[in-house]
Design brief:
Radius of gyration: 20 Å
Number of helices: 4
Helix content: 40-55%
Pfam families: PhnG
Order of helices and strands: HHEEEHH
Protein name: Alpha-D-ribose 1-methylphosphonate 5-triphosphate synthase subunit PhnG
Oligomer: single chain
InterPro entries: Phosphonate_metab_PhnG
Length: 148
């Protein structure tokens, strides 16, 4: 799994669910904050029909954080970064911590298989349920041509 895929899953997972699964893994690394967590605004861009020219859709509140694992200083700086929509500082810091831990070879496979894979399945299930709910309200319009 790529780092950006991992970041997406972590950002879309509710914080309480992420904290519970992270603590169940038992990975305990001390870290220090390098930047943030801090909240700001980000410009969201859109495209007409997903293929047209880009335009500024509006602004969105985002929180970011960067952390460094304390015990890894001998091996070099291991920085983790986290971004999340909204103002949840703890969520952004937790994502940054998981990102930093996932950069270590020894932990990456365990994090991907025991944390990210189940969260990905739950995210897909939530998406499928939302799609089914939306499909139930779908109305198909058609035009009937009348003969003379």
């Amino acid at each position: 799994m790529t780092r950006s895929q991992r970041q997406r899953v972590l950002a879309l997972t509710p914080r309480d669910q992420l904290e519970a699964r992270w603590s169940a893994l038992g990975i305990d690394h001390t870290h220090r904050r390098v930047r943030g967590p801090e909240t700001g605004m980000a410009m969201i861009r859109g495209r007409m029909g997903a293929t047209g020219n880009a335009f500024n859709l509006g602004e969105m509140t985002m929180t970011r954080a960067s952390v460094m694992l304390e015990e890894e200083k001998a091996l070099g700086d291991v920085l983790g970064h986290g971004w999340v929509s909204g103002r949840d500082h703890r969520h952004a810091e937790l994502i940054a911590l998981i990102d930093a831990c996932a950069q270590q070879e020894a932990l990456r496979e365990r994090i991907d298989s025991e944390l990210i894979a189940p969260l990905t399945e739950e995210l897909a299930a939530r998406h499928a349920e939302a799609s089914r709910t939306a499909a139930a309200t779908r109305v198909d319009f058609f035009t009937m041509v009348r003969g003379e």
